[in-house]
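Worked example

This section walks through a single chain of length 490. The input is the sequence exactly as stored; nothing has been trimmed or padded.
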Amino acid sequence: MDIAIIITYTLALLIIFMYSLAQLNLLVNYLKSRKQPDSSPTFDFTKAEEIPQVTVQLPVFNELYVMDRLLDNIAELEYPKDKLEIQVLDDSTDESVITTAAQIEKLQKSGLDIKHICREDRTGFKAGALKEGLKIAKGEYIAIFDADFLPGKKWLLQTIPYFKDQNIGVVQTRWGHINRNYSMLTKIQAFALDFHFTMEQVGRNYKDHFINFNGTAGVWRKKCIEDAGNWQGDTLTEDLDLSYRAQLKKWKFKYLEEVETPAELPVVISAARSQQFRWNKGAAENFQKLYWKLLRDKTVPFKTKFHSFFHLLNSSMFLLVLLVAILSVPVMYIKNNNPLFSWYFNVIAFFALSTVIFFYCYWHTFKKIHGKGFWNFMEYIKMFFTFFSIAMGFSVHNSMAVLEGHFGKKSEFVRTPKFNINTLKDSWKDNKYVNKNISGNTIIEALLMGYFGFALYSAFKLQDFGLFLFHIMLFLGFGFVFIKSVTSKL
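Given that input, the structure is written out below as tokens.
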């Protein structure tokens, strides 16, 4: 049994270490990209004949609290009115349908070409709505925004010109966060998303590795969508699915780090849970659906296959982290009860380098957004350990999602409720879309909080503090997620 535990523990650490090396390579790519000026061809919008027709799609479902804000914002986009169409793809089943229709009617009277498209059923969920709207879209290019996104007035002028390159199928922009500092939960979500939208997306895009359209705040060439097989609703992340199919068809993606599109982060843990579940399960589903096809494609370079492996299995790292965490306690006892294994524990201490690599990579993202300096670095250290503690606290919930994705269990597309939260004074307490049920995983999270409390006790009992910081982070992470999950229902 001891040997089985050690082998499993080592293999999990090894895969995590390989993942950290992939991230380090992306950092190298990111730093190189900053030294290279962008020489992409662009449309000249001073010439009317070069301004193409654009359709903006707004897929929404029961967004009572943010529809006014969304439509007011989209109406401010600067683009020739005769070249701009807006589709509100409304699958709502509540009273928001009526209020949305009334606001759209007002915008139509102002001369805006805006349509309210309602389906009789939600077949295919968001993917189905986008596909339905595409059938009648006038635009050669399709910009997509979720209900909580607030693009700047010049957003279309900053993105559409890059489609002059006929090989470009998608232009994706970086997400911003209008409520980053609302709570610790929003801060750690922003911390994670900043890393993805800065280092990962740029690092992959710079070397022409596969990246993903992020479901919103980007533009598709209509021809690219159709050529890649159109939107499909058989996974929970239709955006990642279509992105990989398009790149397998040799379409190029353009990522614009400097174009920020602000959005609202979930402020209550049940909303963050539903979003995390969808993203993590969807990634696993797409690994099963697409990776083997990519692996067999002889035209795709090995390095792109390597990065795509860890890209699609990004969420599966939660499963490995959970496994390492649970096994770390018996490993601590094995270490102290079996002196013959002492050499082994000296060897696996090498894998602590993974943490150093992650720390170094995340710092580059943090300082890009927040700036350098001693106090910013101190703030970064706090955020790094807080983020990884809470991320580990989510590992049970996210691991369940990953397992469902890999084993093919189907589930409905559960959209993340929006709150229209902009300042610390705003409250989400009366939001009708908040899930009032406590997840069954919450009980497991409470038990794991106790389990890692026992691990801290064991460190003093055995006088072995090699994993003490790791176990403190696990104890606090599972404690945070458990307490927040319970108190948010009160």
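What to look for: The two ends are 44 Å apart (CA to CA).
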